[in-house]
Amino acid sequence: MRDVRIDRRLFLRGVGGATAGLAAATALSACGTGTSRSASTGTGGKDSKSVVVRDSGGSFGAALQKAIYTPFTRETGIGV
């Protein structure tokens, strides 16, 4: 049997590569295809005048509503 020695640099490079691959796979799987959302909600299409945004709610959600969502709706006519 061959004596395989892994030095610190090789170990860190392998762990870093595995971590980067796992992070990329997680990020890409979160993107999805986008086909299930419009099909399941029935609101997709050219005549849709609303945008769905997910926030955490509470005081932070209220601040987002006041600072971003309401002005956006006022300027564009697209509901948030």
Architecture overview:
The chain is an all-alpha fold and 80 residues long. The protein contains 3 helices and no strands. The protein has helices at residues 8-31, 35-41, 58-76. The longest helix is centred in the N-terminal third of the chain and has 24 residues, at 8-31. The model has no long low-confidence stretch (mean pLDDT 80). InterPro entries: TAT_signal (IPR006311).
Order of SSEs, N→C? HHH
Distance between the termini: 65 Å
Query: In terms of per-residue confidence, which ranges show pLDDT below 50 for 5 or more consecutive residues?
Result: none
Structural class label: mainly alpha
Question: Mean pLDDT across all residues, rounded?
Answer: 80
Helix content: 55-70%
Q: Roughly what fraction of the amino acids lie in strands?
A: under 5%
The radius of gyration computed from the alpha-carbon positions, rounded to a whole number of angstroms, is: 23 Å
Organism: Streptomyces europaeiscabiei
Protein name: ABC transporter substrate-binding protein
List the helices and strands and how they pair.
Elements: H1 8-31, H2 35-41, H3 58-76
Main attributes of the structure:
about 80 residues; mainly alpha; elongated; TAT_signal; ABC transporter substrate-binding protein
